[in-house]
Amino acid sequence: MLQSIKKHKAVSTIYARLPSRIRLGASVYYSFRKLIKKTGFLSADELASYQSGQLKRIVAHCWENIRGYREHWEENNFSPDQLITVSDIEKIPFTTKEMIRDRLDDFSCTSLRRLRKVSTGGSTGIPLSFYQQRRNELIELAFIHEIWAQFYPPIDLKTKRTILRGKKLNGPVGYDPLHGLILSSFDLTGETIGRYVEAIEYYKTPLLHAYPSSLHLFTKLVEQLNLKINHRFQAIMLGSEILYDFQVSQIRKVFDAPLVNWYGQGEKTILAGYCNHNTRYHAFPQYGITEIITRNDSRAKSGETGELVGTSFWNYATPFIRYRTRDYAVQGDPYCPECRRHYQLIDEIKGREHEFIVDKKGKLIALTGVSIVCGSFKEVQQFRFYQETMGEITFRYVKKPGVVKVDTGFIQKSLKEKIGEFFHINFQEVDEIERTSSGKMMYLVQKLDTGKFTGDER
Ligand SMILES: [Zn+2]
Fold this sequence. Notes:
binds zinc ion; Rossmann fold; GMP Synthetase, Chain A, domain 3; 24% strand; seven-stranded antiparallel sheet; 11 helices; alpha/beta
């Protein structure tokens, strides 16, 4: 193991001379870090006026340069002169994923410099390609680092971290001189876990950045094999997936560090993270405008659930204006009394469209609520729900090593308490639960089109 680490070190000196990609973007990155710091504690009125300026700017750009938006808005009787204050955003018609997917070039301004086409969507949902500029990646990083900086103030482009995410490597462990220690989420097993722990102790990076599902499995293996990790991370950065309560309690058994989570999407219309006082999601007002919209298209009140609708300030290539994300969340207050930021709070992320199950009567139930009990299934190593019929779900599971028989009666009873009586639950023991192509561990394979149902839950 140490041999292989030394080899990686030799590579690092060669690479260290070539971070021109980072040097080029550094000025964008640092100017945004500065902007967020400068505006983070502005009053509600000051932030509203900042947002209204950014909104008018990008709307004018769309009106002048982007045919798809101009047509869509004219058809719906909207024109930019109707925008006076930021709350006038409600006059702009919604944009959907399908509109942009079907007419990408009409909804894009491709004459901008340094464009690249990116794709999002992955294993489920609607795959979507769109354009953004090179600088958008640096802007994104600046915002994410401002969340992290509350827990680790020295964070910048040079900070090394331990990364347990969906990166395919030649083996389970690798070292990338630009980012730090890379642990593969694909190769995580009882046989390889010792190497992961050894590498963590060797590199001792200040931060750990992991998919919640990968870190959940990692800590289960560490616990089962009685391994000890002496290195103490300053903070653990999650993100990219819904964070379930059963994952948090499992991760805390092994790591004594703050867990930091945030919500964002590939389209970069909303970014909202924890502050260093509580686990509510604080939506950055400098990033874009975050709305939560109920089923009858009105703005959700505090405590109400609705669809997240985002307007991005920074992508002028394929702008997303009042974009329906198909993600559901619970509206919070417009102010955090603990960190004193006038940011829109999101109390809970309920899930993506495919993270709901459907009962016999067509009611949607969020997996976030169901999964609370899953931490108590002590004999289960991994699990996944599968649904293809209304009111019927299959609980697929892998036994923990050494367990002869799993008490499915107990699982049945615990699940029924959460999902109600209008479900039939099947059990299926399997040898393996496969990770998705991105290395994540999906907890639900939903074959039904949940968009067709109107449940009370969301
Ligand atoms: Zn706060």
